[in-house]
């Protein structure tokens, strides 16, 4: 275990202790094993699907015979976006949750749903694994009854269109039906980019692109490759509008029911999974543009400064920004 991992593990446990989480008897059991049901919308080929196998293997090694980890991909167990409520009710032990999921209950978290705030994956890890992370996760544990254990880099989101189209500035996206995940924070982002946002679950995007119900979607490129969104698309626009995260979260009720040594092992396994995802995804993103070019797609580098300016102005004026704690944006910017 690296010292950073040890520190973060300690912090996660310290956070749980600070919030007065008790340690009771095991929660959901099967043949004397604690069952960990995991639900995610990730497709099998994506890094943030494969990372759950790393989680499972890590736990089998550190706590042999104690846990039964059940991984459900493609949103087959719970619909995308319904996982936090399922965890709060105790019907699900683990899921990756997004900043947009959190913002529904903890509005100030919407600062992390805004375009062009987090600069890159390194900035993201430093923000969430440092004092800001400690602070912003507290209301998540208190209000949502889920405990974030690790931050995974979902990737930098880019726009992809089904037509061959020159997009250099937000105005070029006018009237483009851009699929966004279904929540108000996501739709706001689509609008800020200059498009007409259309809500749809991840699992429905491929067909919607194929049939023309939507004109495009935006996702990190490794996810777009894993879900084969390039097949019905012609253009990639490298807007890099959101350096996206997902948080590997555990139902607080279920987490409290684990023994302290088990909690520690679960946190370590979650952090190993996130590390695996992050390393692979960062490497992938460095090379992936060539893959899309090889598929015959047009890859455009737009005027990112113009996108950044337009998007940031929209957020500054939004109702969302009014919920952001004073000084937080400056503190996020100051993290190096
Ligand atoms: C998506 O629906 O576009 C999104 O990228 C949103 C993320 O928060 C996350 O739910 C992700 O889908 C899924 O894990 C599928 O990759």
From TrEMBL:
**Of which family is this protein a member?**
Belongs to the bacterial solute-binding protein 7 family.
Q: Where in the cell is it found?
A: Cell envelope
- Keyword Signal in annotation: yes
Organism listed in the record = Propionivibrio dicarboxylicus
- Which InterPro entries does the annotation name? DctP_fam, TRAP_DctP, TRAP_DctP_sf
The source's superkingdom equals: Bacteria
Annotated GO biological processes are:
transmembrane transport
Q: What is its main location?
A: other
Pfam families in the cross-refs? DctP
The protein's name is Tripartite ATP-independent transporter solute receptor, DctP family
Q: Which UniProt keywords apply?
A: Receptor, Signal, Transport
Region forming the signal peptide? 1-30
An example of a Gene Ontology cellular component annotation for this protein is: outer membrane-bounded periplasmic space
